[in-house]
Design brief:
This protein is of the alpha+beta class and 469 residues long. Helices cover 22% and strands 22% of the residues. The chain has 8 helices and 21 strands. The strands form 6 sheets. Strands 11, 14, 17, 18, 19, 20 and 21 form a 7-stranded mixed β-sheet that branches. Strands 1-8-6-3 form a 4-stranded antiparallel β-sheet, with no helix packed on it. Strands 5-4-2-7 form a 4-stranded antiparallel β-sheet, with no helix packed on it. Strand 15 and strand 16 form a beta hairpin. The longest helix is centred in the middle third of the chain and has 18 residues. The relative contact order is 0.11.
Length: 469
């Protein structure tokens, strides 16, 4: 009989830990090689993880909801069919230590591995110990000295300084060295909640550091650094902790509103020409490509053409500098039953309508099946969100950092419009229209530029010819 370790995979270079969100198999179940056996959530993507071998699920070592370092053994498979399940396979088994490949500390107990993306004031069961300065001389845990890399830092130090961008930003603003703190995350990783507790405890910033008040939380976004009291559940209420994805979305939205000076402009777009083009070519297109021809590829093509004309819309802000992105990578928000994800079409400006259609449909279908890799949701330079599929007329979407603009697409529907004929006479006609909104970062984009960009998108959509296909 042989047992195979099932590990927490590393879903991208920058990801140090993952949350085991759901087991798809239970102890004693037979599994096939590459059959999904559990789901994970990271700070980038949700995914189903396949079995490394066929066999029987003998032990579950990490429970649903636990956050553990990559390479942690989460389960073991018995490779001989019908072999008895080990005594350690009960649902209450403790997490195993990290595998040698991960080089990380042992798995965190339930609740101790909260992601740095979790918002302050999270669910009560996610306890966090106050952060304190690390002692100058740590007592040795064993006769063996801690492993150090070429720069002399221990693995624990590296994990602490590998906190989220938000945590590093707040620490820099207050003159705090993350490596000098002991946090509640995996291997002492400092989370945002840890850092805010440390600041609120009266930790002094270095001389000359810029004084920044604690950022407003999602519970008091307009407050002056003081969070509103958390609401208490009433009898009959249902209290449910946020999923990993929902907590991350919440945090990102608050951070973006605090980072960028949001302004939104609107224009009405006439899709009548595109609607007629689709009607003429839909059957032929779908027969030739096997893909459904929707409005979105025409929108993406228009967006990328506009970004070429107005490169400031495809940029990022780095302090007092502007980074003009050479690549045009379009993120398209996909609504899921359990949250929202934004897969990225890379080099979208180099694709035809057919190429965009294939890429869009592939990414959307794999997003819903939890088959995306972390790289496929990173590196976007401009985002499109489409609440119109649910009937929304218009909206004011929040920018996806570190981008500087996001396009909102309202529902595409037939409306009565006043049309001026060649003879100068006005008539009322039925036209297929939509309201587009562009939320932009007013730190570097003026309203005139944003409106010129949106006008370029409008003009492109309204003048598509059959040759576009």
């Amino acid at each position: 009989m042989a047992r195979i370790d099932v590990i927490m995979p590393q879903m991208g270079e920058s990801i140090a830990e993952g949350t085991l969100s759901r087991w798809l198999k239970k102890v004693g179940d037979e599994v096939k090689r590459d059959e999904p056996i559990f789901e994970i959530s990271t700070d980038k993507v949700d995914a189903e993880i396949p079995a490394p071998s066929a066999g029987v699920l003998a032990e579950i070592l990490v429970q649903e909801g636990q956050t553990v370092p990559v390479q942690t053994v989460v389960a073991r498979l018995e490779t001989e069919k019908g072999a008895a399940v080990g005594a350690g396979g009960s649902s209450g088994a403790a997490p195993a230590a990290a595998g040698a490949g991960g080089g990380a500390a042992g798995a965190a107990p339930a609740g101790a591995g909260a992601s740095s993306a979790a918002p302050a004031g999270g669910p009560p069961q996610q306890q966090s110990t106050p952060v304190t300065p690390a002692a100058p001389h740590r007592a040795a845990a064993s006769a063996t000295a801690p492993s150090r890399g070429g720069n002399g830092a221990t693995l624990e130090d590296r994990l602490r300084t590998r906190s989220s961008p938000l945590v590093r930003k707040i620490a820099a603003e207050h003159g705090i060295e993350l490596a000098a703190l002991q946090g509640s995350g995996v291997a002492g990783r400092v989370t945002k909640k840890d850092l805010m507790q440390y600041l609120e405890a009266g930790a002094g910033a270095r001389p000359g550091a810029r004084a920044v008040p604690p950022p407003p939380s999602m519970h008091a976004p307009g407050g002056a650094g003081h969070e509103a009291p958390l609401p208490e559940p009433w009898p009959g209420d249902i209290v449910e902790p946020m999923s990993k994805m929902r907590a991350i979305i919440s945090e990102h939205m608050v951070v973006s509103r605090r980072t960028s000076a949001h302004v939104t402009s609107f224009m009405e777009i006439d899709f009548t020409r595109v609607a007629r083009l689709r009607a003429r070519h839909r059957a032929e297109f779908e027969a030739a490509t096997g893909q459904k021809l929707t409005y979105m590829p025409f929108i993406i093509k228009s967006v990328t053409d506009g970004l070429r004309q107005h490169p400031i819309m495809n940029s990022s802000v780095a302090g007092t500098s502007i980074i003009y992105r050479k690549q045009i990578n379009i993120g398209v928000a996909v609504a899921l039953d359990w949250g929202l994800i934004v897969p990225v079409i890379r080099a979208a400006d180099e694709l035809s309508i057919t190429g965009i259609t294939r890429a869009l449909n592939d990414l959307a279908s794999r997003a819903r099946a939890k088959k995306l890799s972390p790289e496929e949701v990173q590196g976007g330079t401009f985002t499109i969100t489409n609440p119109g599929v649910f009937g929304s007329l218009m909206g004011t979407p929040i920018i996806s950092q570190p981008q500087v603009a996001i396009l909102g697409v309202g529902t595409i529907e037939k409306r009565p419009k006043v049309i001026t004929g060649t003879d100068g006479e006005d008539t009322i006609a039925i036209r297929t229209c939509s309201y587009f909104s562009i939320s932009f970062d007013h730190r570097i984009i003026d309203g005139a530029i944003a409106d010129q960009y949106l006008a370029a998108v409008k003009q492109r959509i309204e003048t598509f010819a059959d040759a576009a296909l």
